[in-house]
Structures are given as C-alpha cells and as structure tokens.
Amino acid sequence: MTPPILEKPTLPSVVLRDDPPKFLMLYGSLRERSYSRLLAEEAARVLEGIGAEVRFYHPHDLPLKGPGLDEHPEVVKLRDLALWSEGMVWSCPEMHGSMTGVFKNQIDWIPLSMGAIRPTQGRTLALMQVNGGSQSFNVVNQMRVLGRWMRMLTIPNQSSVAKAYNEFDDDGRMKDSPFRNRVVDVMEELYKFTVLTRDLKDVLTDRYSERRERADKEAAEDGVVDKENPKHRIHKAGKDGL
Questions:
Q1: Residue 170: phi, psi to the nearest 5?
Q2: In what helix (H) or strand (E) does residue 90 lie, and over which residues does it extend?
Q3: 78: Cβ–Cβ under 8 A, 6 or more apart, which residues?
Q4: pTM of the predicted structure, to 2 decimals
Q5: Residue ranges of the alpha helices (H) in the chain?
Q6: Strand, coil or helix: 98
Q7: Where in the chain is the domain with CATH 3.40.50.360?
Q8: What CA–CA distance (Å, rounded) separates 2 from 131?
Q9: Looking at residues 143-169, what average pLDDT do you find?
Q10: pLDDT-derived band at 226, boundaries 50, 70, 90
C-alpha cells in the first residue's frame, strides 16, 4: 500500500497569554528535613517571584502503586494537580545511584491517559536532584527518560546540588551560591518554555503515526476496508470469521 501524501504541518498563530503559568512541584523524600523538598521550595519561590502560580503535592500518604486504589483520595489529588498544571518541577535525591521509590511511586500513579485525556502530554518539565556527596547526574538523567515517556517537553537545563546538607540554612532557605544561581537559571527557562508552548501542546504532540492509526480505525468501523492494508485484512478476517 502506498502511504498517504505528507502534508506540511499547520502552525497556528498564537497570542501569548499573560495569565500566570501553573506549575506542580514534586519531590522524592519523606524526611522531616528533606533536601529535595527544600530545593523544590526554593525553586517555587523563584517561580512565584517571576509571576508563576505554584502548587505542591506532598507524597506522605500516597499508597504504593497497586490494583484497586485508583480512587484513593491521595491518588485523585495527585492526578487532579497534574491536570491543573501547565508544567512540572521534579526534585529528587539520589539513592544507590538512582531515584527514590517515593518519587517513582508518584510518577507511577500519573497515567499516560485518562480516557481521551493525557494528563502530562505537552506539559513542560524541569529536573533537579540533590546529592549527599559529590555532584551526580544519575537521577536527572533517569527522570529525563521518564519525562520523555510521559510525553512532556523537558527543558534542556537542569540542576544537581552536591552536598546538599551544606547548601541550606537552618530556616530551609538555599544559600546564595552557584548552585542557587543554576536553580534560578532552570526556573527562568522553565517559565519561558511554558509561556511559549502551553497553547501549542496539541500541535507539538500531534503524531503522524497516531493520525494514521485513527484513520484506519475509523475506516474499519465505517466498513471501508483497504485490502492492501494488513490491519484492514486482519479486521475483515475477524469480522467474517475466516
């Protein structure tokens, strides 16, 4: 079968909105003095300072991912916040060279799709990690893979804070340092990417393969079968019981 002729993508004209972009902050530790939470709180102050709206999800009462818990109040709260947001900030400590289970459990509870809605598709994402020792990028690299899997627009810049216990004062504020400068860089970049793309996410995430799949499904449902299309032959064989 000859594939359909490709068409030049249509890019709509967009007038940038001036309402505050909305960000969900996720962190990956339950400790009372959680450095991933403190880093997320510092990032939230930066975002609010430049005009954004910020909300946190606190994972202390979130159950482990498992069957029969989709309507648990904490699961519903997390998913509602994901739908509310236009972008996210993920902040996680490194443990044994990897992200923590506390953090991964939150992502596992955010589905790729809810009916016709994809809670994370096209939303922007910024990544940060804290380290107990020297600087590492294991966790931000792993989260970048997760962001791609969740169909998010992960910004290029990222933050990794070495020896995080030295970088915050007794009140939980981040000390003035190159590490904090990088946090500001990342949040500014996230803000700009979000304002520029939030009304274009449906265009940016529109996929040729999915358009063809939808067209094939609609053709099969309408009884329009292309004998040269293997998918249509399978459908017809099943329908006729051959």
A1: -65, -25
A2: strand 87-93
A3: 57, 62, 106, 109, 110
A4: 0.85
A5: 35-49, 73-84, 101-108, 138-149, 178-197, 201-204, 208-221, 230-240
A6: strand
A7: 22-203
A8: 53
A9: 96
A10: low
How buried is 223 (Cβ within 10 angstroms: 0-12 exposed, 13-18 middle, 19+ buried)?
exposed
Structure tokens belonging to residue 25: 């902050």
Residue 233, Cβ neighbours under 10 Å: how many?
14
Mean pLDDT of 203-221: 82
Both tokens assigned to 24: 């969900």
First to last CA, the chain: 22
H or E stretch covering 153: strand 153-161
Report phi then psi at 171, rounded to 5: -90, 0
Q: Assign domain 22-203 to its CATH architecture.
A: 3-Layer(aba) Sandwich (3.40)
Look up residue 194 and give its amino acid. T
What local confidence, expressed as pLDDT, does residue 189 receive? 98
Q: Cβ of 69: how many Cβ atoms within 10 Å?
A: 13
pLDDT of residue 124: 97
DSSP state of 19: S
**Could you give the C-alpha distances from 79 to 34, 42, 59, 191, 226, in angstroms and in order?**
23, 24, 12, 22, 40
Cβ 155 vs Cβ 233: under 8 Å:
no
Q: What is the DSSP letter of 168?
A: B
pLDDT at 235 > cutoff 80? no
pLDDT, average across residues 169-191: 97
Cα 88 to Cα 119: distance, rounded to the nearest angstrom: 11
Instruction: Identify the band that residue 239 occupies on the pLDDT scale cut at 50, 70 and 90.
Output: very low
Identity at 204, one-letter amino acid code: L
